[in-house]
Write a structure and sequence with these properties.
There is one protein chain. By secondary structure, this protein is α/β, with parallel strands linked by helices. The protein has one domain (4-221, 309-317, 326-426): Alpha-Beta Barrel (TIM Barrel), CATH 3.20.20.80. The protein has 14 helices and 15 strands. It has helices at 18-21, 29-35, 51-64, 76-79, 88-103, 119-123, 132-147, 160-168, 180-207, 233-256, 313-326, 345-361, 404-415, 420-426, and strands at 4-5, 11-15, 69-73, 107-111, 153-158, 215-221, 224-227, 278-281, 285-289, 294-296, 330-335, 366-372, 391-394, 399-402, 417-418. The longest helix has 28 residues, at 180-207. The radius of gyration is 20 Å and the shape is globular. The mean pLDDT is 98.
Length: 429
């Protein structure tokens, strides 16, 4: 392990999602999914981290770790609990939270949609129904008009490919559908929602002369798809097909407005450049076999608690590839690992930031890193059992306890480097 420095302008912080931390909301699609018994450990997002009531405490935790940026989500079901009825108290609550972040010197990046829908929208078909484009536009307009003086940076949609494939192909997320035809409708509508929202956010902020540079993008879930056998031409072909179908076609469609098959054809909202940064959520690599078209894990590789391969080099490869495609600043909008005993999280953080330091030296403009996540939270179908946090959470008492990896990350946030002394303290047994 070598010491390294990050650029002076580099910004570090953490990322969360509203449903995963807030608790207390019964009006969203994931609470309904929990009630149907689909969560592996039988926990529910109704508890989560009680962040809705404890946000001041949690912002203090960010401040303690020297965060300069924070990616936070809004809960659409709180803001528009019934179709066409907006809750001014809910948006006021988010204003209070954002104001406190700014007072502490932490810049918010606001995610408008992170996997969950209001129940009224879910009953209408969610992103499967083409009317969702109009409903999403109305919701975005309400939010940006009321937060635009405080927030200049937005993610329209988080991981649209994950939302679509797990909910409409594998059927393990709400609404529990297994249909390629319906999956492709969701792909198309999510792309159109993003393009519409991108234009609208820029227009609202310009028309109102809101302060700050407007930055809008998507948090793209990007994986490395490598052939299981790199000498097998069929495995090589399968890996390329998987990459295109899972992320390539949708990412390019949303970025340019020109829909690629199987997402669609043409440019129904007009072609253009619908991103101000390249948002990358990176976690792992898949080994692809042509036989059975299966995703596997490379043999003999390190794994986390969820059996995901730990492959830091993949972050380097993805950033190089996506910068060549889109030529824009790169923000790592999620990166982290499931490690309940905190055995390897410090090394995970070191290895991935080291890859980023190499990219920066090569002139690739990686500007930000948002660690997933600040504290253990409700991890979708895994429930409370999958622990990704810099802080350990006792869900019964809601006590947050800083992990050793959290102390390490807090030092990096403060110093923008990893020194030999830090390696000795945090990374050597």
């Amino acid at each position: 392990m070598k010491a390294f420095k990050l650029p002076d302008h580099f910004l570090l912080g953490s990322a969360t999602a509203a449903t995963q931390i807030e608790g207390g909301d019964k009006n969203n699609s994931w609470y309904n999914w929990c009630e149907k018994g689909h969560i592996k450990d039988r926990s529910t997002c109704l508890r989560a981290n009680d962040h809705w009531n404890r946000y001041k405490e949690d912002i203090a935790l960010m401040e303690k770790l020297n965060h300069r940026v924070y990616r936070m989500g809004l809960e659409w079901s709180r803001i528009e609990p019934q179709e066409g009825r907006f809750d001014d108290e809910a948006i006021a609550h988010y204003r209070d939270e954002i104001t406190l972040l700014l007072e502490k010197g932490i810049k918010p990046l606001v995610t408008l949609h992170h996997f969950t829908n209001p129940l009224w929208l879910e009953r209408m078909g969610g992103f499967e129904d083409k009317s969702v484009v109009w409903y999403f536009e109305r919701y975005v307009k309400y939010v940006v008009e009321r937060l635009g003086d405080l927030v200049s940076e937005y993610i329209t949609i988080n991981e649209p490919n994950v939302y679509a494939t797990l909910g409409y192909y594998f059927g393990v997320w709400p609404p529990g559908v297994k249909s390629i035809k319906r999956l492709l409708k969701v792909y198309r509508n999510m792309a159109l929602c993003h393009i519409t929202a991108y234009k609208l956010i820029h227009k609202i902020r310009k028309d109102n002369d809101f302060p700050g540079k407007t930055m809008v993008g998507v948090a793209n879930h990007v994986r490395i798809f490598d052939p299981y056998n790199k000498y097998n031409p069929l495995d090589i072909l399968a890996a390329k097909i998987m990459d295109y179908l899972f992320q390539g076609s949708l990412t390019k469609s949303m970025a340019t407005g020109f829909l690629r098959p199987p997402v669609g054809l043409g440019a129904p909202k007009g072609g253009g450049r619908y991103f101000d940064f390249i948002g990358i959520n990176y976690y792992t690599r898949d080994a692809i076999r042509f036989k059975g078209f299966r995703n596997e894990v490379m043999p003999g590789t390190p794994r986390n608690d969820l059996n995901w391969e730990i492959y830091p080099r993949g972050l380097y490869r993805i950033c190089k590839k996506y910068y060549r495609l889109f030529t824009a600043p790169i923000w790592i909008t999620e990166n982290g690992t499931c490690d309940g005993e905190d055995r390897f999280r410090s090394r995970f953080i070191y290895d991935h930031l080291y890859e980023i330091s190499k990219l920066c030296k090569e002139g690739i403009p990686v500007e930000r890193y948002y660690h997933w996540t600040l504290m253990d939270n409700f991890e979708w179908v895994e429930g409370e059992s999958a622990r990704f946090g810099l802080y350990h959470v006792d869900y019964d008492t809601q006590v947050r306890t800083l992990r050793k990896s959290g102390r390490f990350y807090g030092e990096i946030c403060k110093r923008l480097e990893v020194t030999d002394d830090m390696i000795d303290m945090y990374l050597k047994d």
